[in-house]
Sequence to fold (344 residues):
Amino acid sequence: MSDATETLDSIFAPALQATSRAPARFGVSFVPSQKEPVKDRQESDQQALARYPAALRAAAARATSVSRGRLRRQGQDQANEDTAATEEAHAQAISQQRLEEVQRIEGLLRAAPTDFALWNVLDREVFSMIGSLGLDKVSKSTKRRTKSTPSTPPVNKSPGQEPDSMTRLAIVSSIYPQLLLLAMRILQHDFRSPSACLALLAQIKALGPISHVLGASTAIYNDILLLQWKAYGDPGAVASTLDEMDATGVEGDAGTATVVHRILEERKKQLRLQRWKGRPTTPAMLYALESYLVGFGSLSRWRAVFRARVAAAAAAQKMERQEEGEGDEEEEYEEPAETKVTSR
Fold:
C-alpha cells in the first residue's frame, strides 16, 4: 500500500504543479496568492480535492502540500539572498564614505603649518563630529522629559532618519579616534608641543561622555603616559593617568605595560649609577623625594597588575591548547620590549 501511495504522489505532484501554473484552465489553483485569506484557500483546496475519486484524494492532498512547501522555501531563499545583498552593498557604501572622509581630513591635518592651525582643523572637522551625532542632545532632552512629564510617550522617528543616523555613527566611531591619534602624533613629533597634547586629551573629555568613549583610545593614553614621563618626568602623573584609564574602562595593552616597565627600569638605572659614582646624581636625588617615591610605588603596583593579566591570559591560552590537544608547554612572563613611536 505504501508503494502504491508513493507512486500516486509521484504521479499527482507534476500534475498539481501544472495546475498551479495554469489556474484558468482547471478553474482552481493549488498555490495560494499572498493576499488569499486562509479560510478561502482551505475551501478552495477542498473543492479541488473533491474532483478526485475518494481513493486518490489522500495522495492529491500530500502532493499539494509538497508543492506549496517547495514554493515557500524558494521564496524564503530568494528573500534571504536579497537581504544579504542589500546589507553587503550598505557596508561597502559606509566603508567608501569612511575612507573618503579620513583621507580629506588627514590631508588637512598634515598640511597645517602650525599647531594653532592644526587645532582649528580639529575644531572644524573632528570635534564637530560629536555634535553631528546628536546623542548628547537626545540624552539631555530625555532626562528633562522624564523629570517633567514621565507619562509622555517618546516621539517616533521617521523611517528615513534612523538609517542615516546609524550610518553616521558607524563612520564617526571608526574615524574619530583615528584622526585624534594622528593629531596627537603630529603635535608631539612635528610641533614638539607636549602641552598641546595634554590639552587635546582634556578637550576630548570636555566634549562629553560620547567623545570620551569614542576618542580616548588606549593608543592616545599610551602616548600621554610616555609624554608625562619624557617631557615632565612625573611618575605621579603617570600613575594618575593609569588610575583614570582603569576608572573609565580604557583597557591597557602591551604598549601600556611597556611604558610602565620603561619608567621603573630607568629609575633602577639611575640608582645603580649613583652607587657606582659614590655620590648623589640629580635624577637619583629627585627620585628620593616623597612625591616621586609615592608615584614609583604606584607604578610598581601597576606593573604587578600587568604581569598578573599576562599570566592569566597565558594560562587561558594554555588551557585552550590542552583542550585542542596541541601540547602543554609552559610559558613564562617576559618583560615587554620597548616600542618606538613613529612620526608621520
Remarks:
- The mean pLDDT is 77.
- The chain has 15 helices and no strands.
